[in-house]
Amino acid sequence: MQVITINLPELYVQELKILTEAEIFPSRSKAIRQALTKFLEPELKHVHDIKDLLKLMKSG
User: Fold this and answer.
1) How far apart are CA 7 and CA 13, in angstroms?
2) Contact at 8 Å (CB) between 22 and 16?
3) How far apart are CA 8 and CA 43, in angstroms?
4) C-alpha–C-alpha distance, residues 9 and 4, integer Å
5) In this structure, is residue 27 part of a structural domain?
6) Which secondary-structure segment (H or E) carries 45?
7) Domain range spanning residue 16?
8) What is the DSSP secondary structure assignment for residue 27, as one 8-state letter?
9) Does the global pTM surpass 0.90?
10) What's the number of domains the chain is made of?
11) Which of 7, 28, 39, 47 could form a disulfide with 16 if both were Cys (CB 3.0 to 4.6 A apart)?
12) 27-57 confidence digits (pLDDT tens)
């Protein structure tokens, strides 16, 4: 994994603290990774679908 730095609103930092203290997530990093995965998977699927459609249009 690669380490990155992000800036978050204080409210998000506080909410991440609540989630980790309640042991819903083992760490802030894990919570952020899961949130990004939930966001990115459908977005990336949409992008791949568009790319596939464009390939079909170019070949046909």
Assistant:
1) 10
2) no
3) 21
4) 17
5) yes
6) helix 28-59
7) 10-59
8) -
9) no
10) 1
11) 28
12) 999 999 999 999 999 888 888 888 888 888 8
